[in-house]
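Quick question, first post here. What does this chain look like in 3D?
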Amino acid sequence: MAETLTYRPDDFDGAKAVRIRVFMEEQGFQNEFDGVDQDPRTLEVAVRDADDNPVGCARVFPSELEPGIVTEEGRWVFGRLAVVPEHRHGGLGSKILAYSEEEARMRGARELHLHAQLTVMPFYGRAGYEPYGPVELDEHVEHRWMRKRLE
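> Answer (accepted):
Ran it through. Tokens below.
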């Protein structure tokens, strides 16, 4: 029987717990939270299991909240996709991405941009994202921008 998972489009507490575990404790990032998390236009997606434990997350927000990206109507930014280790390799990341894309589309997004770790670029490529721009360091990890048209 498949596990019951609940997707919540405005669950910062759940998303925060997953991000601390994956990005800070597992990957060693220090600057995980920023002003984007406090903005009411940011959609903080969390997925919880049947026991109400947070197991995955992501966030999407209008591009004007992201420093260094060209702002344009309908351009949104996706990021902070994370899945706790015991729920990986079962398709949950792809489901969170698809759910987040649809939530952003319903809020007016026509294009999503993301700053992908190089190791997960193939994952995003399979979902239709195309790379652009140079490789950049975000803290100690190489990243590259990617984008996808939603229309």
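The longest strand covers residues 54-62.
The mean pLDDT is 93.
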